[in-house]
UniProtKB/TrEMBL annotation:
<dbReference type="GO" id="GO:0003841">
    <property type="term" value="F:1-acylglycerol-3-phosphate O-acyltransferase activity"/>
</dbReference>
<keyword id="KW-0808">Transferase</keyword>
<protein>
    <recommendedName>
        <fullName>1-acyl-sn-glycerol-3-phosphate acyltransferase delta</fullName>
        <ecNumber>2.3.1.51</ecNumber>
    </recommendedName>
</protein>
<feature type="transmembrane region" description="Helical">
    <location>
        <begin position="12"/>
        <end position="39"/>
    </location>
</feature>
<keyword id="KW-0012">Acyltransferase</keyword>
<feature type="transmembrane region" description="Helical">
    <location>
        <begin position="337"/>
        <end position="356"/>
    </location>
</feature>
<dbReference type="GO" id="GO:0005741">
    <property type="term" value="C:mitochondrial outer membrane"/>
</dbReference>
<feature type="domain" description="Phospholipid/glycerol acyltransferase">
    <location>
        <begin position="90"/>
        <end position="212"/>
    </location>
</feature>
<keyword id="KW-0594">Phospholipid biosynthesis</keyword>
<dbReference type="Pfam" id="PF16076">
    <property type="entry name" value="Acyltransf_C"/>
</dbReference>
<keyword id="KW-1133">Transmembrane helix</keyword>
<keyword id="KW-1208">Phospholipid metabolism</keyword>
<comment type="function">
    <text>Converts 1-acyl-sn-glycerol-3-phosphate (lysophosphatidic acid or LPA) into 1,2-diacyl-sn-glycerol-3-phosphate (phosphatidic acid or PA) by incorporating an acyl moiety at the sn-2 position of the glycerol backbone. Exhibits high acyl-CoA specificity for polyunsaturated fatty acyl-CoA, especially docosahexaenoyl-CoA (22:6-CoA, DHA-CoA).</text>
</comment>
<keyword id="KW-0812">Transmembrane</keyword>
<keyword id="KW-0256">Endoplasmic reticulum</keyword>
<dbReference type="GO" id="GO:0005789">
    <property type="term" value="C:endoplasmic reticulum membrane"/>
</dbReference>
<keyword id="KW-0472">Membrane</keyword>
Length: 378
């Protein structure tokens, strides 16, 4: 093992990275709370400030992926579409097979300058994840309970709020609604069979309600759907824990730009359109499995320095007082103070482990583990 790899795998490095992340995150969350009085007075300014504050948190994770683990993210797309990325509002559709798929998504957002404004339809449970979930509240993320009877109104309302959003944004939808597992796949294919739909090998059957309501409510604001298919080279199974340990992964993302105007307005047709899209996505994944690459030319955006600069800023601000405190404690600290400090470190470490646990598929929800049935209200 090289020296650098050994250093990256050391607990003390993880502790320092997580310390910067936790403390800066709390500071940012606090600053976000301070913007609350601004919302009724100057909503657009409050939104712009919150985008930049949010960037301070999410870009630290991007920096971890790009600069710490050195993960390579390659984009397969056509040059015509490439010119528009980051310059228009878009709905992004992504497969949901990997623990760090959201992080690769964030990396591309950063490279196209839309990380601060990036949005997602997220399960409600994530709203309670410290720092990230709290930050999302101020970034107007759309939360859903994955219970359509309750979501249909709240989701539509949150989407309508984005109609006057002042900056370009990407709205991410994992239409499969949950991460891929063999069991969930098997069950969703039984559902596909009862609906007379072709079987998918690499995807769960997409849930169409969220997509249709998104298209309906963002029509006029969003100009395109970016159909994105992600995979990792050499059958890598990336984890956030691996990224923190400095492990390098190789992500390949295939993106097709589809004008929103070409998506049917009628709900049933829109749902059928999404099913067809997933059948195509499945073929792209099959091709990737066979050949090791997606169709289309490679047009990767360059890595930008801002995520690293942001991390260096927070690190220089927060690590110096941390070291002073540690030295003072070591030389002059009383036993109770030392014990209390160690307890705080252990607490912070447990908190970060819990947050990382949220990304782990093995600890995922049971959503999609059985066929859900719904009373026909629509
Ligand atoms: C150039 C570069 C391009 C791209 C770069 C890539 C990305 C960057 C972009 C942005 C980044 C932004 C942020 C990223 C950061 C972090 C994100 C992290 C995580 C958040 C993600 C999540 O939390 S995913 C989970 C939440 N989201 C969703 O669930 C969305 C999808 N779901 C839906 O749309 C659902 O419809 C719903 C949630 C709106 C409602 O769900 P509900 O279950 O109540 O109803 P459904 O209608 O869906 O279900 C009933 C119907 O489904 C059939 N059924 C039953 N059982 C199953 C089964 N097991 N599988 C499939 N289908 C099933 C049932 O028969 C019903 O059918 P009907 O015909 O009656 O409708
Ligand atoms: C630089 C700092 C490093 C510190 C690491 C702390 C990181 C905490 C990150 C928490 C971010 C949580 C985002 C999780 C996204 C996710 O993957 O959600 C899963 C859902 O889609 C579907 O859930 P499920 O139904 O369970 O499959």
């Amino acid at each position: 093992m090289g020296l650098l790899r050994w250093i990256k795998s050391q607990f003390i490095c993880h502790l320092l990275i997580c310390y910067v992340f936790l403390v800066s995150g709390l500071v940012v969350n606090l600053l976000q709370i301070c913007t609350l009085p601004l919302w009724p007075v100057h909503k657009q300014l409050a939104r712009k400030i919150n985008c930049r504050l949010g960037y301070c948190i999410s870009s630290q994770m991007v920096a971890l992926l790009e600069w710490w683990s050195g993960t390579e993210c390659t984009l397969y797309t056509d040059p015509e579409s490439y010119r528009l990325y980051g310059k228009e509002n878009a709905i992004v559709i992504l497969n949901h097979n990997f623990e760090i798929d959201f992080l690769c998504g964030w990396t591309f957002c950063d490279r196209f300058g839309v990380l601060g404004t990036s949005k997602v339809m997220a399960k409600k449970e994530l709203a309670f994840v410290p720092l990230i979930g709290w930050m999302w509240y101020f970034q107007e993320i759309v939360f859903c309970k994955r219970k359509w009877e309750e979501d249909r109104r709240t989701v539509a309302r949150s989407l309508q709020n984005l109609q006057d959003y002042p900056e370009d944004f990407w709205f991410l939808l994992f239409c499969e609604g949950t991460r891929f597992t063999e069991k969930k796949h098997q069950i969703s294919m039984q559902v596909a069979e009862t609906k007379g739909l072709p079987k998918l090998r690499h995807h769960l059957l997409p849930r169409t309600k969220g997509f249709c309501v998104t298209v309906q409510n963002l029509r006029g604001k969003v100009t395109a759907v970016y159909d994105s298919t992600l995979n990792f080279r050499n059958n890598e199974t990336p984890t956030l824990r691996g990224v923190l340990n400095g492990k390098k992964y190789h992500a390949d993302l295939y993106v097709r730009r589809i004008p929103l105007d070409s998506i049917p307005e009628d709900e049933a047709e829109c749902a059928a359109w999404l099913h067809r899209l997933y059948q195509e996505k499945d073929k792209f994944q099959e091709q990737y499995m066979q050949t090791g690459h997606f169709p289309g030319p490679v047009k990767s955006p360059p890595c930008r320095p801002w995520a690293l600069i942001n991390w260096l800023f927070w690190a220089s601000l927060l690590l110096y007082p941390f070291f002073i405190l540690a030295v003072q404690l070591f030389y002059a600290g009383s036993t109770p103070t030392i014990v209390a400090t160690i307890a705080v470190c252990i607490g912070a470490s447990v908190a970060v482990r819990w947050m990382i646990g949220q990304t782990e598929i093995d600890r995922g929800s049971s959503y999609g583990n059985r066929k859900s049935t719904r009373k026909k209200t629509d």
